[in-house]
Amino acid sequence: MAAPRFWREIMNRYNLIGTKCGNCNKIMFPPRYICPHCRRMGKLEPFKLSRRGKIVTYSIVRVGAGGLEEQVPYVLAIVELDDGPRLTTQIADCNPEEVKIDDEVELAFRRLGEDGKDGVIYYGFKFKRINKSQVAQL
Ligand code: ZN
How far is the CA of 27 from the centre of ligand 1 (A)? Predict the structure, then answer.
């Protein structure tokens, strides 16, 4: 695959693209064809979502599903983005015991796993907690 196309696809995955309804202005993720709020079709436009949000609730996974055995324990959280939509995501780079509800998080691009048969490594989004001392420096 040519490098420019490869990087374009990476960036598309690295940004969260949802949809915004042109009728009622609600923002949703994953993208929809019919607005679940006002039931209109054809008014939905792609919308680049905020890369930041906060943890609404979470659980610590100690028994990994197929392909995730090596990653346990890990945190699976419901994150509410600054734009409003909620999504389920893994929280990367953290000590599961330190995660708290309302922790601020941001989008992170991470290795998700490996296809065992041909060894292809695949990537996608997770979220990571925003270091409070880093925030103070901004
Ligand atoms: Zn709508």
Answer: 8
Q: Quick one: average pLDDT of 64-93?
A: 89
Distance from the CA of 82 to the center of ligand 1, in angstroms? 19
The rounded Cα 47 to chain-centroid distance in angstroms is 15
> CA-to-CA distance for 129 and 115, rounded, in angstroms?
27
Look over the chain and give the mean of its residue pLDDT values, rounded to a whole number. Answer: 85
98-126, pLDDT tens digit by residue? 999 999 999 998 877 777 777 777 777 89
pLDDT of residue 114: 73
CA of 42 relative to ligand 1 center, distance in Å: 10
The residues whose Cβ lies within 5 A of ligand 1, an ion, are 21, 23-24, 35, 37-38
